[in-house]
Write a structure and sequence with these properties.
- By secondary structure, this protein is mainly alpha-helical.
- Strands 1-2 form a two-stranded antiparallel sheet.
- Strand 1 and strand 2 form a beta hairpin.
Length: 132
């Protein structure tokens, strides 16, 4: 008999995070996931239970004053939990790249070539139609 895999919504409910946060954690490799049919994300219950246990252990070790302040929906307001801090440390820093003027112009033409060609053709056609 095959095991029942959990959906994104079920995992989000179990970990008490949003579905977008579950997807983000899968993308950075914090939560193991399986793609069914190349599209649908599914999770093994045992692995999610282990992650939930790890979160509970971290929350128990935190002193009361370090626990996050929750808003009405149960989401942390401005304090970060230990797991969030750990995830933040593991995320790669984005590299800032300063584009030269030439690169910006090149990108403009690359991404807008359809519009430039269309307006040019329309302009030529209008010129041909309305000339005397």
């Amino acid at each position: 008999m095959s095991e029942k895999l959990l959906s994104i919504k079920e995992v989000a409910d179990q970990l008490k995070v949003s579905e977008e946060e579950v997807k983000r954690l899968v993308d950075i490799g914090e939560i193991p996931a399986y793609r069914i049919g190349g599209t649908f994300l599914r999770f093994r219950k045992e692995q999610i239970d282990a992650i939930r246990t790890e979160i509970d252990d971290v929350e128990e070790k935190e002193p009361e004053h370090a626990k996050p302040v929750l808003d009405v929906r149960g989401k942390p307001t401005h304090h970060m939990t230990e797991l969030e801090r750990e995830i933040k440390k593991r995320e790669p820093a984005t590299k800032q790249y300063d584009y030269s003027f030439f690169e910006k112009i090149k990108d403009f033409f690359y991404f807008n070539d359809f519009y430039i060609i269309s307006f040019t053709i329309i302009g030529v056609l209008l010129f041909l139609i309305f000339r005397k």
